Amino acid sequence: MLRTNETPVMDVLPWPNGKGFNGSSEWWEYVMTKDERRRLDNLMGLALLDPDVCDRLLTKRDETLMKAFGLSTQTQAWLRGLQATSLSELAQAIVAKAPQLA
User: Fold this and answer.
1) I need a labelling partner for 33 at 20 to 30 A (CA). Which of 7, 15, 70, 74 fits?
2) pLDDT tens-digit profile of 34-55?
């Protein structure tokens, strides 16, 4: 999987009148999805190595498998809705349709 620099940057000083930097809500959404993306990458990596995990992910869309990787219920539902018959197709669908997890 692709390794990225994930050093968070934030301003710890209070802003006058309670104002912060523009786009703060988008920043925090991005920070919170980084961990979700890591979990999904780990699941996909294991699916590459283990045919049983691959089958549970692709064919059965196994909820217990997704829960074991700590994926949110929103991500689980999203994954179940993706159309894919192979791990490669699933990976392509994830990259194409998941800008919020990138």
Assistant:
1) 15
2) 888 899 999 999 999 999 999 9
Residue type, 5: N
Are 98 and 41 contacting, i.e. CB atoms less than 8 angstroms apart?
A: no
In 3D space, the residue among 4, 75, 77 whose CA is nearest the CA of residue 33 turns out to be: 75
Q: Give the count of alpha carbons within 13 A of 26, CB side only.
A: 4
Nearest to 70 by CA among 40, 48, 32, 28: 40
Give the dihedral sign, CA 63/79/37/57: positive
Percent helix, percent strand, percent coil in the chain, to nearest 5: 65, 0, 35
Please report the pLDDT score of residue 36 as a whole number: 86
